[in-house]
Amino acid sequence: MDGAAALPESTGTRSTDVEGEELSPLVPRPAVRSARARRCTAALVIVAVAAGVALLVSNLLGDSALFFYNADEAVERRDDLASQRFRLQGTPLFEPADAFFEDRPVLAFTVGFNGAEVDVVHTGDPPELFQPGVPVVLEGAWQQGPGPGPAIASDGWHFASDRMLVKHDNDYRGRDGYDERITDAEEGASQP
Question: What sign results for the dihedral spanned by CA atoms 28, 32, 37, 42?
Answer without folding.
Answer: positive
